[in-house]
Amino acid sequence: MKMPDKVNPYQSVITKTDFGTLTTLAVENGVSAHGSISFSEKTLLANYVYHKNGTYQLVYTIIDTDGSEESFAENDGILPTLFLSPDQENYVSFVPYHPDKESEISVPVFNRENNELPKGNRPFTGKFIGTANQFSIFYDIDLWSETKPDKMLSIEFKNEAIKKKHNIKVALPRNNKIFVKNNEIHLLANDNNVWLHRQIDELGNLMRERIIHAGKEWFWEILSLSFDENSYILCEENGKISVEVISPDLQCTSADIADIQNEFFNTWQPVRIAENTFVTHFNGEFGNGWFTIKDDKLLELFYSKDEKGYKNLMTNEVLQMDKENLIIANITKTVENKYAVIFYPLADRETKNKELLILNREIQ
Questions:
Q1: 133 torsion bin: left (phi>0), alpha (psi -120 to 50), beta (else)
Q2: Distance between CA 286 and CA 236 in Å, rounded?
């Protein structure tokens, strides 16, 4: 297969701040973010970069922790999903152009010179979660159905190459959160006013399960989940953020960590940046932000409400930004206790966004 060509689509500006290194990537005609992932202690972005005539090209951009960037253009592909193989090599699934059908292929992002063009599959719309044994795990929930079961895609590897893709319907209940660690796949769902914790294998077979009578009726995200160690579950109600701590013998305690006075609208899968340390981003009626939690202790909480930028509510320090109404596209781990936040300015319907901002930050 053809390797991506090196390109230079951006004007890049690097700014050192008290909060980390901020990189601004600007283009002439438009850019949109389509995912990011860790890449050899750096950040790998997948973006569409637009041409003057309205067409666009899929561009992979590597940002190091000092803010420097280099970019490579995909020869023929859209709808990228970045993921890691069990050997932690960077892969991408995308749809090559075909006049009659939409078929997805999965290939290494860079090391593909000796690869033949693989056979395509029906696109999987879920998100990459992590790796377990010789499988890369993806998960998808149908937000428009109250009855359809969740779906899991397990891409099986053998001899450092893709062997087979397994599409799995996960047994009810639906609307699970998923957590992968130490080659174990855990699910957590609200089920008849209790929490159902299940461990499944890479093909969806149930291995063990338990019912948790938690102190909270609802939860937002899994910080960590285990049958054998303490589990930490992120909760929020009316702006009061808490962590439900569940012991292996099912003792539950609630740790209140912050009150932002505004409820969450959405949260995203927490990103592990160190042992038991996770970064989660959220949005609500009055803005968005992110926070870092270690076990049940809050380390930082950035919120955009009433700011042109983000205030750390623990210190009242403000990260000033030139742009207003920033959207958080993604957060990725770089090295231990370091992460990158990818932003883009909210644009109106008549114009395309022309900038991406990447903040590389370290937890002290």
A1: left
A2: 16
Structural contact between residues 244 and 219, judged by C-beta atoms closer than 8 angstroms = yes
pLDDT tens figures, 77-107: 999 999 999 999 999 999 998 878 899 999 9
Dihedral of the alpha carbons of 299, 304, 306, 307, in degrees to the nearest 10: 90
> Mean of the pLDDT values across residues 299-319?
97
Round to whole Å and give the CA distance between 39 and 62.
8
How many CB atoms are closer than 10 A to CB 158?
A: 10
Q: What are the pLDDT digits (tens) for 15-38?
A: 999 999 999 999 999 999 999 999
The answer to whether the beta carbons of residues 331 and 279 sit under 8 Å apart is yes
The pLDDT-based confidence of 65 (bands split at 50, 70, 90) is very high
* Residue 154 CB coordination number (10 Å): 21
Cα 24–chain centre separation? 21
Q: Which of 181, 170, 177 is nearest to 197 (CA)?
A: 177
Per DSSP bridges, beta strands 338-345 and 56-63 are unpaired
d(CA 226, CA 87): 23
Alpha-carbon gap, residue 248 to 251, rounded angstroms: 7
SS3 for 153-175, per residue? EEEEEECCEEEEEEEEECCCCCC
Two tokens, residue 12: 């890049």
Distances (CA, A) of 17 to 61, 288, 292, 299: 22, 20, 19, 19
Cβ proximity of 278 and 219 under 8 Å: no
Q: Residue 352's pLDDT band (boundaries 50, 70, 90)?
A: confident
**C-alpha dihedral over 174, 216, 273, 359, to 10 degrees?**
90
> Which of 112, 115, 96, 105 lies closest to 58, judged by CA?
96
Q: CA 313 to CA 303: how far, in whole Å? A: 7
DSSP state of 116: P
What pLDDT, on a 0 to 100 scale, did the predictor assign at position 175?
96
Phi, psi dihedral angles at 203 (to 5 degrees): -105, 10
Distance of alpha carbon 91 from alpha carbon 157, whole angstroms: 12
